[in-house]
Automatic annotation (TrEMBL):
Any Pfam family the entry gives: Big_2
Domain DM13 residue range list: 126-227
Lineage: Bacteria, Pseudomonadati, Bacteroidota, Cytophagia, Cytophagales
Protein name according to UniProt: Ig-like protein group 2
Record-linked Gene3D superfamilies: 2.60.40.1080
InterPro entries assigned: Big_2 (IPR003343), DM13_domain (IPR019545), Invasin/intimin_cell_adhesion (IPR008964)
Species of the source: Sediminitomix flava
């Protein structure tokens, strides 16, 4: 009986030692990262930044990302991460997540240049923006594939849009009757003249329409077929 107790005690110690050595704490440091960084942008062009938050087990988790520019005279940036080049210069773009008692930040340097040209590859498509409402909306546009992946939408000089709407938003879609299921590019910041949008990770043949939509009123304002 004594021998059995001693034997069981030894086995218990060995098992405990083995398990103790194998126990790992699987937590990691939480982080935010800008997932589609660029280092340069042309004056007048727009770009949609994206960021992801990884929790303490290294898994992507939905959190509110806060966006900031260190120099708002060089670029403007919306709460959703859409930047527009305003004038030549340098700025730092910050993406952050605020948590109780802590914050997590990623940043990149961004140069804005008047003479910067985005390298366009492949054939371009285009069309005409037309109003489908009582609000002014008109102009021509082209859509081109760009080097590194994604597309560039160039709005022509003859573009004009009403400033009377509280939040006019541009989308890419295959159903111009609704913004449901559409890819939101961002709120319209330019209401007259030429400007550009750069949309990463989108193929030129994925969408058939530009859609202009007033989000607060849930009203379609106009569209343009990509041909």
């Amino acid at each position: 009986m004594i021998r059995s107790s001693i034997f069981l005690g030894i086995i218990s110690i060995l098992i405990s030692s083995c398990i103790g050595d194998d126990i790992k704490f699987d937590t990691v440091e939480q982080s935010v990262s800008i997932s589609n960084p660029i280092d340069s942008l042309k004056v007048g062009a727009s770009y949609q930044f994206e960021a992801i938050y990884l929790n303490n087990v290294g898994q992507e988790e939905a959190q509110d990302i806060m966006w900031e520019s260190s120099n708002e005279e060089v670029v403007s940036i919306t709460s959703g991460g859409l930047v527009e080049g305003l004038t030549e210069g340098m700025t730092t773009i910050f993406a952050s997540v605020q948590m109780p008692g802590d914050s997590f930040v990623d940043s990149i340097k961004l140069a804005v240049d008047e003479d910067l040209e985005q390298e366009v590859i492949g054939g371009a498509k285009g069309g005409t923006i037309q109003s489908t409402s009582s609000y002014l909306l008109e102009g021509d546009f082209t859509v081109s594939s760009i080097n590194g992946g994604g597309i560039q939408i160039d709005i022509a000089d003859n573009y004009r849009a009403s400033t009377a709407l509280p939040d006019l938003v541009l989308y890419l879609t295959n159903n111009p009757s609704t913004n449901a299921g559409a890819l939101e590019i961002g709120s319209v910041q330019v209401f007259e003249g030429a400007h550009s949008y750069i949309i990463p990770n989108v193929d030129i043949g994925t969408y058939e329409y530009l859609l202009y939509y007033c989000k607060p009123f849930r009203v379609k304002v106009g569209d343009g077929k990509i041909e």
